[in-house]
Input
Amino acid sequence: MTTQATFNPQAFIELALSRGVLKFGEFTLKSGRVSPYFFNAGLLNDGEALSLLAQGYADKLVQCENVGVIFGPAYKGIPFVAATAVALSQVHGKSVPWGFNRKEAKDHGEGGVLVGASVAGQKVWIIDDVITAGTAIREVVTILKNAGATIAGVLVALDRQERGQGELSAIQEVQKELEIPVLVLSQLSRKNEERADKVPMLSDLRESGAIEQDADSVFFIHREEYYSDSAEVGKGLISIAKQRDGATGDIDFSYNSSLTRLADYGELTEMPF
Output
């Protein structure tokens, strides 16, 4: 058994940012929603990144009950579940069966859509990167239940804090509808969207690891036009919420979305937005 340091959510977020896994901007998701950030787990594409994530999954799973089989939904979940099985064995000394599904049923060989350990009669934990609208998780839960599995829970790398169909978040809706726990390794806060004034605040980071306490500087970028059609087009705000060696405050800027360009406020007013 190998001894390694425990998973650090802040280190994972920093790695995701440095690798371009986590990006900020305006992104249209598979669900059709527009999100201010995008998490592309496919860019966790080397041994360092994958082992860090797998260690996080493994550390969390050893604290859980009813881990009969771990399961990775196709396609991104497949390397995650395989690496997690290795981490459970090498780091925690636990040999846990694992499996995954195909997108299309195979009509030769072993056939079917399920590959790996049998899930029939087993309590299964599903491992995935994120839950956005919850559609993919609902689909794989149906597949597993039809194969005779009992869903013990879902474990995701990042809680995007996406709102579901109603007032609950997408994760809360999955928990309520399917009556299963959903655990997360790290999360981004969208508490600013619960306020009438959408400008982010330092306290919004309190559930995102120790960033608020440990960071030397914290800068937020805000564009009111993202939330309001009546806001000034092309105007943004940089809020210096924390700076150990300098002043805090707000700075207005101009933003040209067609060029993805920032400038001092007013300098881009003659350019088309």
Remarks:
- The longest strand covers residues 150-159.
- The chain has a mean pLDDT of 80.
- The longest helix spans residues 77-92.
- Residues 9-187 form a domain with the Rossmann fold fold (CATH 3.40.50.2020).
